[in-house]
Amino acid sequence: xREDLRSTLGARPESLVILYSSLPFxxxxxxxxxxxxxxxxxxxxxxxxxxxSQCPPDVxxxxxxxxxxxxxxxxxxxxPRSRGAVLASAAAAVVGGHPQSVGVWLRYGHLxxxxxxxxxxxxxxxxxxxxxxxxxxxxxxxxxxxxxxxxAPSRLVRQAASEGYPLPxxxxxxxxxxxxxxxxxxxxxxxxxxDAVLLAGLEASVAxxxxxxxxxxxxxxxxxxxxxGYLWEAEAAFRAALARDPHGPYSxxxxxxxxxxxxxxxxxxxxxxxxxxxxxxx
Length: 282
Description:
Elements: H1 2-8, E1 17-20, H2 37-42, E2 48-51, E3 64-70, E4 75-78, H3 83-95, H4 102-108, H5 117-131, H6 133-142, H7 152-162, H8 168-176, H9 181-193, H10 197-209, H11 216-227, H12 231-244, H13 251-280
Parallel strand pairs: 1-2, 1-3
Antiparallel strand pairs: 3-4
Helix pairs in contact: 3-4, 3-5, 3-10, 5-6, 5-10, 7-8, 8-9, 9-10, 9-11, 10-11, 11-12, 12-13
C-alpha cells in the first residue's frame, strides 16, 4: 500500500485530498475520516484522506485524487478523469447505494456543469434516491429532458446511438415517459441481457426509486450485483425482492440465487478458517 501510494502520488500538490473508491478485500489498511493512516504512509502532514462518500464540500477538483483497487494488477491505481471513467464511476455509486458520491465524481471529472444525457441521467438518479421524485423531475428539466412529446427524445436517442448506447429503442421509451418505473425496469432487463450491466443497474435503481415496489426491480438489482461480484449486496437485493412479493414471478429465482450465495459464503468461510488454522499451526 505504501509503495502504491508513493509511486502513484509522488508528484502531488500540497494539501492534496485523497479519496478511496475501493480497497483490497480483507485489507488491514484502516482509513477513517481524515485519519492519520495515509499521511503516515506518504510522510506528508498536509494530505487529507477520506472515502469518496465522505469528501468535504468545495474541495477544487485539481486538489482531488481518487484511488481504487485494481484486482487484476493487485495494486491501487489513480482513477482517470476521463469523461467515460467518471460517468461510469458515478453510475456505479448509484448502483452501489452511494448516491451521495455522485456529485464528488462529477466534480472530480469537471462535469458539474455538464447537462448531457449521460451526466443528467446519473445526476437525476442520485437526486431521486436522495430527495425523491420531485427532485428527479427537476434535474431532468434542468438537463433539457423535460420535453417528452417533441423531437427531443428522438434527437437524444440518435446521439446516444452514435456514442454506442446498446439499446436506443428502449432508451426512447424511457425518454418519452421518464417517470415510469415500468419503462425503466423493462430497459434494465433488456440492457442486462446485452451485458450492459452498469447501465442496467442504473435503470433498475431509478425504477426502485420511482416506487415500483413489485420485487421485479430488486431482483434485477440482485442480478446486477451478482454480475459485478458483490455477493452480499446481491443477497440483500434478492431478499428485498422476496419481501416485496413473496409469491410473485421473481420469488422462485430469487430463492435459487440465495441458495447459491449461501453455498458460496459457506465455502469462503471454510477457506478462511482453513487459512487461519494453517497460520496458527506450529
